[in-house]
Specification:
Layout (H helix, E strand, L loop, with lengths): L2 E4 L3 E4 L3 E6 L11 H9 L7 E8 L4 E8 L4 E7 L61
Antiparallel strand pairs: 1-2, 3-4, 4-5, 5-6
Amino acid sequence: MKIMPCPLNGPRNIQEFICAGPVEPHPDPSRCSDDEWAEFVWLEENLAGVVREWWCHAATSYWFIAERNTVTDEILATYPADRVFSERVDFAPLALPEPPAPPEPPKAPAPPPPAEAAADTPAGDAPSDDALPLAPKETGG
């Protein structure tokens, strides 16, 4: 079993850790071009020899730096990130475009024209009161 000497938790099984890549300057995503950002995210130098890498202890979310020989896979040193970085870098938030305006609600259909005088309707076409269904009577009880 390979052991990682965690600066916070002491020696732990390497399976508890996640390697997040080399310690290198990050471009400001709000100021760099898409090509520069894509190069930073997707392209790695993959150097042979001693490199400084970001590591995270998954159980505690503790981030630290490890120096590791990529040829022998030997971990040479681990230490808190504040040994390298004295202050936090906050990038400017990305300017998001304004959301589109909501669509206008559909217009209500035009009301039907007013009915003409009842005299235009033949008497035989109008329903009589006894042809309409009756609502059931409520019974007290």
